[in-house]
Amino acid sequence: MNSTGRWLLVVGVAAALVAAPIVVRVLPASGSDVTAAALGERIAASSSVPWSGEVRTRGTLQVPDTDSFGGVVDLLGESKTLRVWWRDATHWRVDDTRQTGESDLVRDGTSLTRWVFESGTATITPYATVRLPDTSDVLPSRLAARLLGGATTDELSRLPSRRVAGRSAAGLRLTPADPASTIDRADVWADEESGLPLRVEVYGKGDVLPVVTSALTDVDLDRPSADVTTFEAPATATVRRRDVIDVAAGANAFAPFELPDAVAGLERTGDEDELGAVGVYGRGPTALIVIPLRRGLAGQVRDQLSTVASARGGDAGTALEVGPLSVLLTEGGRRSRGTFLLAGTVTPETLAQASTELAQKVTSR
Amino acid sequence: MIRLELTSMLRRPRTWVTIAMLNALPLVVAILLAVTDLGPRPGTGPPFLSAVLTDGTLFPLAALGIVLPLFLPVAVAVIAGDAIAGEAQAGTLRYLLISPVGRTRLLVAKLASTIAFVLLAVLVVAVAAYVEGRVLLGSADPSGSVTSVSGSTLSQAEMIQRTVVALGYVTVMMLGVAAIALFFSTVTESGVSAALGTVAILIGSTVLLGLDAADVLQPYLPTRYWLAFVDLFRDPIRWDGVLRGLASQGAYLVVFLGAAWANFTTKDINT
What we know:
The complex is a heterodimer. Chain A is of the alpha+beta class. Chain A folds into 2 domains: 36-229, Lipoprotein localisation LolA/LolB/LppX (outer membrane lipoprotein receptor (LolB), chain A, Clam), CATH 2.50.20; 246-364, Protein Transport Mog1p, Chain A, CATH 3.40.1000. Helices cover 23% and strands 38% of the residues of chain A. In chain A, a hairpin with a 2-residue loop joins strand 19 and strand 20. The longest helix of chain A has 23 residues, at 3-25. In chain B, strand 1 (146-147) and strand 2 form a beta hairpin. In chain B, helix 3 (59-67) crosses helix 6. Chain B is globular and about 60 Å long. The model of chain B has no long low-confidence stretch (mean pLDDT 88). At the A-B interface, helix 1, strand 3 and strand 4 of A face helix 9 of B.
């Protein structure tokens, strides 16, 4: 073989090696003629589908960091690779893997264990639905369920199918009709057979790229074994038991406030037996959360917000917008009923109105 | 031919000086950790480094995490980059090829010698780090069991098995570096230039890995799966990254060794 022949052989092998993964990725998805409404129902019904796999999430929002809300900042502003075992809604495990270790969430019925390898700590708390978002909330299945919750037929339309995690996935677009929403659209691709959401992209108004993307890169629809979703702390671990998961769950349980049933035209949502001093209002992507803050924590958040150039003070408090996320920290003066942190994918005007109504309607308990 | 190259590699003082230098940084880190008891925060620093504060027997893995991103590949680039270019620079390549040795065999022998160096370096780093970890950082559990990355308990036997696989994996991760450096070594007559060219590719790969915009390129980058040996210590083991890493290095080996072969076997040798 002469020199040219040898180089052609090398180039041919290199081209084949580069092309092989691309060919697998661009295999066409099978077409799906299911209607948008039917696909929405199929996705809603998939909450009982067991699965395991790997999820990649990417958030592009640069939210100011604070100690108490650091987990939310990471979710919205960083990329994560999550390993997931999902037996059912109350038995699952989500591992946030890093090259340096991992942080795991293991829900076993009514308790939740957080394991952090680097510090060797296992923190066990009762599970609470009213809490700050964690890694389990950005899984495509949970994210899609939250976004599509309460969606009307008019807000849904079909998208072409695509391959996600090697499976054919039917596309669904949610375009919020509520003018209070700062979300332009949410695109969901769900497995055609099971309805399990495999990929979710959320776009703010005017955004070309999604502000949050969550997609399975590998999925198995067999039910994971029970031992993989059970955590037994190793002998060397530091085990801590806490009454509440985070500041939001703590405020919900212990803060002395009764919140109104609706603010800024948004209805309060949540389980009756978990309604406390933290309020979640709205439906789908038009939603806001109201969290009462202790004085020390409120001061810390206010100091942090004051370092952000785009934060501004006003009658309602300190306001900040990060992409489609609006944040408002009320003043909490001596005559007010307390300091509240309001945050959500709603317009700043909606948050200001909610703040005004809160000041009038909040009662002590 | 391979035996000759291996013997030559083991007799060179440069080999042992390089291995000694590879061990210097983990030793400094172990001393600093022992003195300050201050580990990196979760998500920062080399893998396993924060965990060695409570279990020094994990220090071999932390030491691999310390040398793998830069020091080990630079050492491999220097050794493999000098393999052919060094002979040409010293004027010995022509005489080497006068003896009844095929050029392809010479290339394979040089690669085998480089891989043997990597294996030797990785073993020495691991053994030295184990001793340093036990002496300076202590052992958490007298039974020898170790906590996995996922919080389960690994028996001593499981830990040894996984560590052996990890050492092998790290060695394989250097195959791509060795092949790239060997290719450059056939292109230039300067071993330093071949090493620098290889290091430039590795730095470029590392920069692109940190860039979200380069997402589509990342599966092809040579450094992409180097630290996937950490996945061997999760529970269950995450094989996906490990297997992709092996496939990736296999591809780099085939392409760049092929390129080295295509270039070297038809090249005019004047020195």
